[in-house]
């Protein structure tokens, strides 16, 4: 009888034992790689996404609050009142702050998703299909962060 970490084997074909050993080694390597990749995501990619979203929403907030002519013109074309761009700018500022303050990432994601739903509605009403790409990317990143930080709500 041969013993293995999984118990004793009554009759073992040497070829199966070698194959099983290789599978066990590959399984351990794969599990270790998954742990390393998970750590890489948390330590590198997630902060990059958070700070990138914060920068985008901060710039968008500055544009909406300062109100250059092309922003005012867009809000007029969408038939929105002038005060709405200030409200949107404040929501974007809150989303940007939420993304960078630890423990408030889910709140920032919720504010970002609320703003982006408004953007989608505005672009759908005016049939500006090509302009939906960036909001769609921002929404998908915000939703993934909301799911990842759901426990912080």
Walk me through this protein's architecture.
This protein is mainly alpha-helical and 153 residues long. The chain has a domain of 107 residues. The chain is built from five helices and two strands; from the N terminus they run ββααααα. Strands 1-2 form a two-stranded antiparallel sheet. Helix 1 packs across helix 5, helix 3 runs antiparallel to helix 4 and helix 4 runs antiparallel to helix 5. The longest helix is centred in the N-terminal third of the chain and has 53 residues. The radius of gyration is 25 Å and the shape is globular. The N and C termini lie far apart (56 Å). The mean pLDDT is 82.
Q: Layout of SSEs?
A:
Blueprint: E1 2-4, E2 7-9, H1 14-66, H2 69-77, H3 83-100, H4 105-125, H5 133-148
Antiparallel strand pairs: 1-2
Helix pairs in contact: 1-3, 1-5, 3-4, 4-5
Q: Report how far apart the termini are.
A: 56 Å
Which word captures the global form? globular
Q: Mind telling me the C-alpha Rg?
A: 25 Å
Give the % helix.
over 70%
Number of helices: 5
Proportion of residues in extended strands: under 5%
Class by helix and strand content? Answer: mainly alpha
SSE pattern, N- to C-terminal: EEHHHHH
* Total strand segments: 2
| Mean pLDDT across every amino acid position | 82
Low-confidence stretches at least 5 residues in length (pLDDT < 50)?
A: none
Major beta sheet, strand line-up: 1-2
Largest sheet geometry = 2 strands, antiparallel
